[in-house]
Structure formats: C-alpha cells, structure tokens
Task: structure prediction
Amino acid sequence: MRAAAFTDLTGPDGVNLVERPTPEPGPGEALIDVEACSINHHDLWILNGASAMIDPTDLPFVTGLDVAGVVRDVGDGVTGVAPGDRVVLCPNETCGSCRFCREGPENLCESYSLYHGGLAEQACVEADRLIPLPENVDATTAAALPTAYLTAYHMLRRAEVEPGDLVFVPGATGGVGVATIQLADLRGVRTVGTSSSASKLDAVSDLGADHTVQGTDPDHLREAVSDIGTPDAVINHLGGVYTGLGLDLMRRGGRMVICGRTAGPTSEIDIADLFRGHKRVIGSTMGTQTDLERLVELVAAGDLDPQIDRTFPLDETRAAFEAMVDRDAIGKLVVTMD
Ligand SMILES: NC(=O)c1ccc[n+]([C@@H]2O[C@H](COP(=O)([O-])OP(=O)(O)OC[C@H]3O[C@@H](n4cnc5c(N)ncnc54)[C@H](OP(=O)(O)O)[C@@H]3O)[C@@H](O)[C@H]2O)c1
Ligand SMILES: [Zn+2]
Result:
C-alpha cells in the first residue's frame, strides 16, 4: 500500500510517498481502507521537528490522526465492527486502567497518546475506537471532525459557555478556530474571531462569527475587542501573546481554555488581575470518544457542516502541508484516497 510519509523532519519537502506492507489486524484491531484523513497543525509540529511525540530517528514516519473509511478486516475478539462498516476513528489512545480511564474523562489518561498512521491507503487501528458513520455522513466530512472539532467541542464544554455569552477566538480561521466559531454558534454563543487576513474573516463571518477583528498587534486587538464587548471566555489555541491579551480582556470570573501554542510557548500574565478577577486558565487536550460521537450526530442531523477548505489526493499530501505553512486555508485540509 502507499503512504504519505515524513522522510525528513524539515517541513513540507520531507513529505514523500512510500510503499509499505499492508498491515494485518492483531487481536482487538481493525484494518481500515482509508477514504479520507485530514491533517492538523499537530502533524506540522512533527514535520518541523518540533514535537516530542515521535522519535526523530525513527523515519519514515506516517502521521494522520483523523481517519475515515471502510473496515476491510478485523482481528480476533472484535465484535463492535465488521468488514464493510463505514467508520471514523477517535484517535485517543488510553491505558484503560488509570483513574481517569476508570472514572473519566478518558482524555486525561495518565498514559494518553494519539493514533498516527492515517495518511495511507490502509490503517490498522484499535477497533473499540471506531465510530460507525450514518449513511448521510461521507468520509471526507467525517475526517474533518476528530482532532479540530473534537478539541473545540471539548474546550467549549470546559469553558462552561452559555447562550448569549461572548467568546474571544484568536486565530478563528484554521481547523480549531473555525470549529470553535461553528460550534459556539450552534450553542447560541456569540464570538469575536481574529485573523491576519480580511478575506478569511469574511468567510468566517459567513460560517457564524458574530464579530471579527483583522490584525495581529495585541494593542490593536485589545482596543478593537473591547469596543465590541467583554468576553466571558477565551478559546485559545494560539498561546503566546494571545494568552496575556485574552486574560486582560476577559470579564471577572471568565474562563480561558488553552490547547495550543502556535504563536509561542510562553506568555506574560498579570497575576494580580487573575486572582482579583477570579479568572480561570484551563488546559485542555482533545476530547472524549463520546464528544466525537455527538459531533457525528450533529453532522448527521444537518446541524453541523464542517468547513473543509480543500481536498488533496494522497500523492499531493505535501501540497496540503504547504497550504498549512502558508496559512492558506479556511478550516480543514483533507487528504483523500482514490
Ligand atoms: N491540545 C490539543 O488537543 C490540540 C488539538 C488540536 C490543535 N491543537 C493546537 O492548536 C493549534 C491550532 O491547530 P489547527 O490544526 O487548528 O491549526 P491551523 O489550522 O494551522 O490554524 C491556523 C490558524 O492559526 C493562525 N496562525 C497560524 N500561525 C500563526 C502565528 N504564527 N501567529 C498567529 N496566528 C497564527 C492562523 O491565522 P491567520 O488567519 O492569520 O493565518 C489561523 O487562524 C496548534 O498549535 C495545534 O497544535 C492542540
Ligand atoms: Zn488511562
């Protein structure tokens, strides 16, 4: 089978097609004929050699978390899915026995990890992590959901937002950003989204953002967002300066949920404002399989239409990563197999 592998961790030039033996599903596993797999900034961190999640000497490496396709074969002991089933993978990998696996939420698992391997014609996965797809949910749409929409969905839960709340979303145009805008809109939550690009913000307004502010200068954003209102919460996947800025802007008792650091790994915060204002900073990673099941239901019901910027055939996976590096996408980039 063919796979789009990282042969060097030096950016998009390191993405190349390789031939791999078709894997055999072991006990508890299912072999999937992959139809679509979306890419995430998580994969780009790996491709840039900036992720501790993989061994950089163990190349080529096949990434791809967000797998949708058809079950081709199952290993011993698998009863939940059968060959021919259309499925999407929840990429959570958990130990199944720690206190968080026992009591929930599972994404706090002490040995939490993520599945990688979906940028290939076939993928061998844990069968218990497969969610059946209703007939009206196609594989490309389903592949948009697992990382970006799952993370945004879980963050909005952690932010305890309510209808009418105002949420600040720095970087509202990418995978997690657009997902946050759309899912907030579904809950009746108002949003202020930012981007460096005016045209991308126009698209994000069409997708449900109530307010948008173009720019990256923190002082400009501070003033423009304050003119709109006082955010009740911040959904922050950018980290960096957007963290101190979001905390400054947030109302007393507000919640900032952080899942990423695209704009930098550190930020200066006003500690006195944090405690005097009873503000909360909450770290969050991915979500639960139940969250993903709910997202599939929302799509099947016609309530959510994940924003897919473009699809790329497997042999153009490098171009998909180039688009992400160039910040040339609104929403998700999805690789599809023939
Ligand atoms: N912890 C978790 O479970 C988890 C899950 C998902 C994602 N994440 C993290 O969340 C972040 C977003 O992931 P994603 O897949 O949604 O990425 P993405 O699609 O590449 O995000 C693109 C967005 O980020 C903005 N952006 C890109 N580089 C920037 C920079 N240097 N400064 C400011 N803004 C910048 C873009 O703004 P413009 O519109 O201005 O181009 C755009 O809004 C990543 O850091 C990722 O690792 C974490
Ligand atoms: Zn566990």
Summary: The pocket of zinc ion (ligand 2) is lined by residues 94-95, 98, 100-101, 109-111 (CB under 6 Å). Residues 2-144+307-336 form a domain with the Quinone Oxidoreductase; Chain A, domain 1 fold (CATH 3.90.180.10).
